[in-house]
Amino acid sequence: METTNIKAFGTEAANAPLNEMNINRRKATPHDVEIEILFCGVCHSDLHTARSEWGPSMYPCVPGHEIVGRVVNVGGHVSKFKVGDLVGVGCMVDSCRECQYCQEGLEQYCEPGMTGTYNSPDKHLQDTPTFGGYSESIVVDENYVLRIPENLDLAATAPLLCAGITTYSPLHHWKVSQGMKVGIVGIGGLGHMGIKIAKAMGATVVAFTTSESKFAEAKRLGADEVVLSKDAGQMAAYRGKLHFILDAVSAEHDINAYLALLRVDGSLALVGAPEQPLPVAAFSIIMGRKSFAGSMIGGIAETQEMLDFCGEHNITADIEMIDIQNINEAYERLLKGDVKYRFVIDMASLKNKN
User: Fold this and answer.
1) More exposed terminus of the chain, fewer Cβ within 10 Å: N or C?
2) Model confidence over 164-195: pLDDT tens digits?
3) Which domains does the chain have, with CATH numbers?
4) Angle 300-313/163-173 helices, nearest 10 degrees?
């Protein structure tokens, strides 16, 4: 297969910093869209994968799955996009397309496994991993490319491709709507999107944080009420009051304290990814027929639905723009939670010399 050599930023090993490198991309096949990458969000998954913290990573590793760009070339059979279109690519670039989940539009749960935007075996280039958005361009099958609403700021839209769909999907699945009281736990990259989206769905939003300094921030993002989760009295006031809770915390925390806040038949969906198991007491779910669930990104159709919803409600992420040359420093800040609320790389910086 014909390839072209492009610039990217990635790493050769778990303990090595990210540096400029050259990678090969396939040239567009009949069903492919070639995209010049304009902006790429920085997700915690990027850091974990670059450092091989979620199982063995494939090297070289070029992270990035919150991609916004412009179509610069299309294959001869492409019908959904044309040169000049503003598009996005999220966490996956392919799936088997044949299993029951792919058929149902749940490609993220593909039985043989979806093809991740990075760190997956490349279906087209043998013995090569897929390379993500920390690069000049990307070539993706048109069925895994998304249309970006024209009214949204492009840089601030990039994080919607992961953080946006990760929070929209469970809120949509559990039918969050007007008249419901919804808890959002953790006000970070995921949580701040959860607040905005739940509010736009019509819910009364209750934000939970361990830090009083985030109260004003949570209100600014759209929370109707804010609770200091370390304060037993404040937590007790919400016992049995919430229809749904979206838990976006990746650190160890007491899940039972939040399950207690659900109404009968309420559900808590975990989208954060704590490293250690979270103990769940049997009576936390038995009493009240409660559900403790999880959720992972969304299918292609649902991701497009999320983008359209965000376009309609003018929702984007709160971002801090960086140059690609500052990615290693951004990773260190990410580890400390020192970002409000998502780093986004201006990929024009990749054209600059270090």
Assistant:
1) C
2) 999 999 999 999 999 999 999 999 999 999 99
3) 3-162+298-351 (3.90.180.10), 163-294 (3.40.50.720)
4) 100
